Amino acid sequence: MTDTKKTNYRWVVVVLLFFATTINYLDRQVIGFLKPELEKQFSWTETDYSHIVMGFSAAYALGLLAFGGIIDKIGTKLGYTISLIVWSIAAMLHAIVKSTFGFVAVRAALGLGEAGNFPAAIKVVAEWFPKKERALATGIFNSGANIGAVLAPAMVPWILGIYGWQMAFIITGAIGFIWLIFWWIFYEIPAKHKKINVAEFDHIHSDIEAPITANAPEEKVKWGQLFGIRQTWVFVVGKFLTDPMWYFFLFWLPSYFSSTFNLDLKKPTLPLILIYTATTIGSIGGGYLSSWFIKRGMPIFKARKTAMLIFALCVVPIFAARYATNIWQAVGLISLAAAAHQAWSANIFTTASDIFPKRAVSSVVGIGGMAGSVGGIAFPFFIGWILDSAKAAGNVTGGYNILFIICACAYLLAWLIMHLLTPRMKVVKL
């Protein structure tokens, strides 16, 4: 490191996280667009499909819990590498599956591997950014989830039409190994990176009271200790109540538009592309808004809470999707809700790095992410039951209407409980 004008290598790191998250969501999203084709191949019911989603969610929950602690112990570079290799191989293995049970198994393997993405990425942001920049950095890399969801409706129908469903899994799964090359070439923690200077290193640690040096030892956190801290449960509740809504947006929106508006999923689908593009704006805009509040002098925790209340209110109009008389009305309402979710997500992730020391961030994110996935296990089961019941009654749209009402209420409920748990958030000292 040299004492010259401040470098800005931390934004290169965000680009790496952005592409990893893009690939992560592309791989998990593929099955949603192949669902109509796979239903014919394997005679799936909605309940069968919900079991496949639950298999992913259950493994994702366990993986988050495991990877959170592992990444805090072995570091972000190696932890991210292991995560990506596991999920990319699992994604490609979908192509050789011959049964519904086989899909449950490979989806579980995919969930286990993909669970490492967010604990690693949030810890990387905590390592590379001061608190005043973390929400924006998180919003930028988290928007990769939306870009992955945008690429899926553009790529998957094209691959399906030309090469078949097996190649859709193989091609998308292989992309992760390309990213891995760049990760090993361009990433290292700030204290060891040769591309940053003292000015940027000091900027990264500008909001830490104690002086930081490149050779300072990092004390390991006792993982079980985190469960006894009230602030951990704030993050847990927020993820548990809102993550399942995102699973619904990812895995059921294609079939919603197919069944309600006769959308052809074998062609690139503009309505879904627009919805997931809107979520990109929400993710970056959500991170920017709370950072803007902070720059205007608002305390950090108040800025996060204020922004999250605004986003929770933006989800409420989705209940009106039941009254949509054409596809574009539905697209507008769902786009607003999905964008608000990603804005909420950028801020709730950042609260973990605001409240906890860097050495505990991955563990806390893993615990909260596990809670979100537990909700993601139960909610798909409920979705499958609701939609199969609606189909049996000859009213598929009625089932989706119930789900939209649940989405409309979930974020306000989460915000209220989080506020009641910690009316005045404080930094945790371990």
From TrEMBL:
Q: Provide the primary localization.
A: membrane
Q: Which segments of the protein form a coiled coil according to its record? A: none
Q: Report the InterPro entries cross-referenced here.
A: MFS, MFS_dom, MFS_Na/Anion_cotransporter, MFS_trans_sf, Sugar_P_transporter
| Keyword vocabulary terms for this entry | Membrane, Transmembrane, Transmembrane helix
In terms of PANTHER family, this protein maps to: HEXURONATE TRANSPORTER (PTHR11662:SF285), SOLUTE CARRIER FAMILY 17 (PTHR11662)
Superkingdom of the source species:
Bacteria
Q: Which residues form the Major facilitator superfamily (MFS) profile domain?
A: 13-426
Transmembrane region positions? 52-71, 78-97, 103-122, 134-156, 162-186, 232-253, 273-294, 306-324, 330-349, 361-387, 399-421
Q: What is this protein called?
A: MFS transporter
* Mode of membrane association: Multi-pass membrane protein
Name of a matching Pfam family: MFS_1
Record's PROSITE patterns? MFS
| Key word Phosphoprotein present | no
Q: Which organism is it from?
A: Mucilaginibacter rigui
Entry's localization field: Membrane
